[in-house]
Amino acid sequence: MAKRIAIVGYGNWASAIAKVVGENVHKYSEFETTVAMWVKPKMFNGRLLTDIINEDHQNPMYLPNVMLPSNVIAYSCLKDTVKDANILIFVTAHQMVQDVCAQIKGHVHEEAVGISLIKGMVTQSDGTANPISKEISSHLNIDISVLMGANIANDIAAGGFAEATVGCIHPEHGEMFQRMFDSENFRINVVRDVYTVELCGALKNIVACAVGFAEGLGLGSNAKAALIRLGMHEMIKFIETFYPGSDLKTFFESCGLADLIATCEKGRNSRVCKAFVASDKAMHEVEAEELNGQSAQGPPTASEIYGMLRQVGLEESFPIFTIVHRICTRQVPASDLKRCLQNHHLHQTVQSKEDCSSNSSGVSA
């Protein structure tokens, strides 16, 4: 029996991925050709957004000037969207995950599998934070994989080339997800390092905030490059500290370095944080002005990560993650970023002979 696909989300990235999946399902008989998409009831120019998507095959609120495949069908009822679905694609703001899971619990097919495209963490009552995939899986009792990468939604929707990384434990699921997403202009690699793939997608948004602050402060390209380099170090260190066992190669997949660069260069987090520097408003107010109803995931992720660091006394071991949170919450001025950069513990280091495991060409001896 062909598998029914449901997309839980309606924003910019959800609409772009609906275009990708809606086009791909025609290539394989294992998928139903109709793709369900949950769209929260919203009005746009006097019409329900669900009606616009189903009749005009566009999402002008979140992905204007892009035609969606006619086989993508919008539903305003979340439970109707996921009913009988064999594959669930989660693409909401990460702040919505718990509420979404609560609504659909008990309404998900018992043999369904899911894949999360959501970048962020979910704070727990004890101050810790869960990866999104773990949160969804614990609520719905289904297997959850992840897809992350250097994926600017508008570029993908316009047919530009991109690549992404799927983190998936089960090879048969990984092969299915590759067929579901992969195309000539959207290449998919599958790895088993699920948490590393997912956490790279969350943590890079914090670094992008730092780059946005740097742009707002006029610190220049060299400073932004330094923030990206140091931020990558903190990403690797954080994952190895809290989720040990990662494969270093995963950081050089699309979910890692490539996504970090793309997000810092052209993403909503850097844009909002740049505007924040010039404003006296709270971050959520700047976000509302800049993003037309979309969310910047960097500031709340920075808060969640800071909570984890503070719980174990590691705030000063992750200076960029920590300063981003403090700037976002106006505990310190954005100008403190420069001092953080100047005094980062990874500067003024000298490699010892014992630490050197490669020759001058960089190839292991």
UniProtKB/TrEMBL annotation:
Active-site residue list: 204
Gene3D superfamilies membership: N-(1-d-carboxylethyl)-l-norvaline Dehydrogenase, domain 2, NAD(P)-binding Rossmann-like Domain
Annotated positions binding substrate: 119, 268-269
SUPFAM superfamilies membership: 6-phosphogluconate dehydrogenase C-terminal domain-like, NAD(P)-binding Rossmann-fold domains
Keywords from the named record: NAD, Oxidoreductase
Catalysed reactions, as listed in the record: sn-glycerol 3-phosphate + NAD(+) = dihydroxyacetone phosphate + NADH + H(+)
Listed GO biological process terms: carbohydrate metabolic process; glycerol-3-phosphate catabolic process
GO cellular component: cytosol
EC number: 1.1.1.8
Binding site for NAD(+): 153, 268, 297
NAD is among the record's keywords: yes
Span of the signal peptide: none
Listed GO MF terms: glycerol-3-phosphate dehydrogenase (NAD+) activity; NAD binding; protein homodimerization activity
Domain Glycerol-3-phosphate dehydrogenase NAD-dependent C-terminal, chain residue ranges per copy: 193-336
Domain Glycerol-3-phosphate dehydrogenase NAD-dependent N-terminal: 5-171
Family stated for the protein in its record: Belongs to the NAD-dependent glycerol-3-phosphate dehydrogenase family.
Protein name: Glycerol-3-phosphate dehydrogenase [NAD(+)]
